[in-house]
Specification:
This protein is α+β, with helices and mostly antiparallel strands. The chain has helices at 26-35, 81-84, 92-97, 147-151, 178-182, 204-207, 214-217, 235-242, 285-292, 296-311, 317-323; strands at residues 12-17, 48-52, 68-69, 72-73, 134-138, 157-159, 166-168, 189-191, 196-198, 224-228, 247-248, 259-262, 268-270, 276-281. Bound molecules: iron/sulfur cluster (SF4) (3 copies) and FE3-S4 cluster (F3S).
Amino acid sequence: MADATPSTHRQVAWVIDLNRCIGCQTCSVACKVLWTQGEGEDPMWWCTVNTKPGRGTPRDWEQMGGGYRNGELALGRLPTAEEFGEAWEFNHAEVYESGKGQDAFLKPIGAPPTWGMNWDEDIGAGTFPNAHFFYLPRLCNHCSRPACLEACPNDAIYKREEDGLVLRDEDRCKGAQTCARACPYKKIYFNPARKVSQHCIGCFPRLEKGVAPACVRQCPGRAVFFGFLDDAKATVHRLVREWEVALPLHAEWNTEPNVFYIPPLSTPWIREDGSVDESRRRLPTGYLESLFGPRVRAAVGTLESEMSKRRQGRPSELMKTLIAYDWKEMLGPFTRDPAELTWS
Ligand code: SF4
Ligand code: SF4
Ligand code: SF4
Ligand code: F3S
């Protein structure tokens, strides 16, 4: 097994603004199209966007264990293929070639599906008129203390010096899957055709050419910031370290994740008589704390107070940054256009 806390010189980070994410799945599809169309990869979605509150992908992943508990590596449970959601087969031949016209419609064939990558979309929680939900994009956190790395008996997982990405040497991977048990975010898939595990590669071939990851660059909501966390001038650094409005998901699992989230703000509570209770939030703060920890209260407070400044016509550097007038400022040095480069 490898050292639990590999030191790296540099660390890239994602900051996802949950007030900007519209749940469109463009990030998921951008990743899918680019990286997981090979043999055994059909059910893989390295980037997933699920509705919260919700059970997510794989189903109930937050209850599966992993990470570090009481300072020790904790091997959790391996998600099943059914919990991730299998790749469905559809009746394309019937719809497009059978001549049935409007009498045939697209549907999965075989045993009825029981779960999928975005099965509980838009269900959320609460009841009308106080129903609530938000979207939570997730990918490998390229953790600074990657439990997956320590768990591998074959030293197949490593953390790169130049950007802190957590990658797998597939020549060394023997399909042991203890990495997947140890990852508390359950972001590792098993490829049954090639007998290796796979997870987000941080789009490293793009980073090496100065291009932002596909899930970041393709986001139509300008919801994702990317750059070096250790660069004091980078927007991700300012959001995480200076303004402290971007927080890791489930920091209590102690893997030191490098995907951070601007917490979602909430509309106020509607009373039974239809009047608005400005003192109460529809999205329970306790729920946000269960995801982003106690610091979420201060982060929400900062966001609300900076928004209030703008409403009064006063300047706010934080709001200007989050509005992202200039998309290049969102991506640190990774602003090159992938269409202008030659890819081998
Ligand atoms: Fe959210 Fe952007 Fe992904 Fe769409 S592409 S789901 S807006 S993060
Ligand atoms: Fe490893 Fe999971 Fe962290 Fe990714 S999110 S680096 S797979 S522990
Ligand atoms: Fe997929 Fe690249 Fe985003 Fe990772 S960084 S989820 S490989 S698009
Ligand atoms: Fe190691 Fe995971 Fe492969 S534990 S051997 S990287 S499946």
